[in-house]
Amino acid sequence: MAETETCPLHFPSLEELSEVLKSGLQKNYAEVRVSVVDCPDLTHKPFGFPVKGLCGKPRIADVGGVPYLVPTARLDKIYNINTVAKKIELPGAYFLGAGAASHRSMGLNAELIFSVQAESTTTPAVNGNYVAHINPADGGCLLEKYSDKYSDCDFGLLSNVYASEGKPGKVLEVNVKKRTGEDNFVSCMKKTLLEHYGDRSVGMGGTFILQEGKAKLHIMPPEFSACPLNNDEDVNRWLKFFEMRAPLICQSVFVSHDPGLDLRLEHTHCFSHHGEGGHYHTDTTPETVQYLGYFHPAEFVYRIDKPSVTHTVGRD
After folding, report:
1. In this model, does residue 151 exceed pLDDT 70?
2. What average pLDDT score do residues 69-73 get?
3. Count of beta carbons in the 10 Å neighbourhood of residue 295
4. Among residues 217, 213, 233, 216, which one has the least CA distance to residue 225?
5. Where are the domains of the chain?
6. Complete DSSP assignment for 59-119
7. 125: helix, coil or strand?
8. Using CA atoms, how far apart are residues 206 and 39, in angstroms rounded to an integer?
9. Distance of alpha carbon 278 from alpha carbon 267, whole angstroms
10. Phi, psi dihedral angles at 250 (to 5 degrees)
11. Which residues fall within 8 angstroms of residue 83, CB to CB, at 6 or more apart?
12. Cβ(90)–Cβ(163) under 8 Å?
């Protein structure tokens, strides 16, 4: 795996972040509650994660990037979560977030929803990842538990992941209802942090549930585009969009300001227990939408295998 760059992030207290986020979210939602709480046991429903919490040496990794997908796919870009754990100096880390599945493993292109604990010197990896891909039978969504068919911990092209020791501890609980603004849930928090902290980069990761309503998601086609995807319009024509229903469990990573590492500043993928999942864009039912999330700031960001030639296409 190629070069890794590391940058410390601004790391406010949870109490401070609670007040900052509350102020920003109130501009976008009719009802807002943000508080510091003990992280719920994430091994329980509806999460079903392999770890109990989001705490312990929190950090973010941005691996590869969209330039490895568009304009044309770099099929040689295959990564392994156990290797990433070593790169970020946290063997045995728990990872959540969003990325692309390994086409080498699956034989097709798919959205990867991360929930995996990397191997350590004493324990094997526990892969709770999901994959969302296009069902060849009807063109709809096919959501599967990755470990039901595959035994590796690989992914391809790009990922944005939050990593920690997976320990219980204090986190931010964010509960909002009825969207009144234009921004999606994640974008609103990211913008709020940018407005408050400016060029002091704050990174956060966590999991949230779309409890009520529906959302716009996309899934990449199983075949990479034969024609170069040169702009956002090309990308959107290639992607398959869906409206999916609550409850959706969403794995999210966002950074308020790029400290010069060519980061993807927000990325969220969702899974469910009713067969739907993919890449989250926004809710489509602002009057009835409800979100409940648990988040934690990161101390560092690690930029792994940054593309040497970059662009801003396809980063929504």
Report:
1. yes
2. 96
3. 25
4. 233
5. 4-304
6. EEEEEE-GGGTSSS--TT-EEEHHHHHHHTT-TT-EEEEEEE--HHHHSS--EEEEEEEPP
7. coil
8. 11
9. 11
10. -115, 130
11. 1
12. yes
Distance CA 269, CA 96 (A): 10
Mean pLDDT of 13-32: 98
Q: Are 146 and 131 in contact (CB under 8 A)?
A: yes
Q: Cα angle at 245 between 131 and 204, to 5 degrees? A: 60
| pTM listed for this prediction | 0.98
Q: Are 65 and 158 in contact (CB under 8 A)?
A: yes
Q: Is 315 helix (H, G, I), strand (E, B) or coil?
A: coil
Amino acid at 206: G
The Cα–Cα gap between 161 and 94 comes to 10
pLDDT at residue 2 in the model: 72
Helix (H) or strand (E) segment spanning residue 192: helix 185-197
User: What's the fold here for domain 4-304?
Assistant: 60s Ribosomal Protein L30; Chain: A; (3.30.1330)
Can you read off the two tokens belonging to residue 99? 């990325």
- Residues ≥6 apart with Cβ < 8 Å to 253: 60, 96, 97, 98, 160, 161, 162, 203, 204, 205, 266, 267, 268
Q: What's the CA gap between 149 and 142, in Å, rounded?
A: 13
The length of the chain, given as a count of residues: 316
Q: Shortest CA distance to 193 belongs to which of 268, 282, 265?
A: 265
Report the candidate in 313, 276, 305 with the shortest Cα–Cα distance to residue 113. 276
**How far from the centroid of its chain's Cα atoms is residue 70's Cα?**
19
Share of the chain above pLDDT 90, in %: 99
Phi-psi region of 178 (alpha: psi -120 to 50; beta: other; left: phi over 0): left
